[in-house]
Amino acid sequence: MDCILQCIGASSTDNFPDETIENTLIPHDWVKHRPSYWSSGGHDDPDAPETLTYRLNCDMCIVDEIKLQPFKAYFQYGHPIYSSKAVRFWMGHSKLPHGSDSFVTVEDENLMAIADENYVWTYTSPEFPMLQGRPWGRAGSATALGPQASRGELRGSDDY
Question: Where is this region: Disordered (predicted)?
């Protein structure tokens, strides 16, 4: 069963809405004749983290596997794969009234919705290194109970 109910927000998005976090919920590489992916706005510091925050389906979910698919740029020479160097996950719950942390489309409102002060993170995973140059990754095998909210942090980036 898919535990994610909806997207809450991303720490940044390069070309909104074409490269929005909502694309991470689509299990296909292509939708309506265009690639489907989320792209961060990027940073000068390659180790700067990016986060994706989601609302889970129910108050208590058991998460025993998380699969990641780095973006393969089919339209660029050599088809590079853009992958983070490592990933970490948080599970917790929102301090906001129910329904007020819905996905927003204005960047300033998005940053307010995902602000750390709006959440209580009750579990933080270890940092998992991502295998570079591979189209799929599996992050972690530990079971975590995740009430209401989940956040993934992607650290560093490289293209392969």
Answer: 139-160
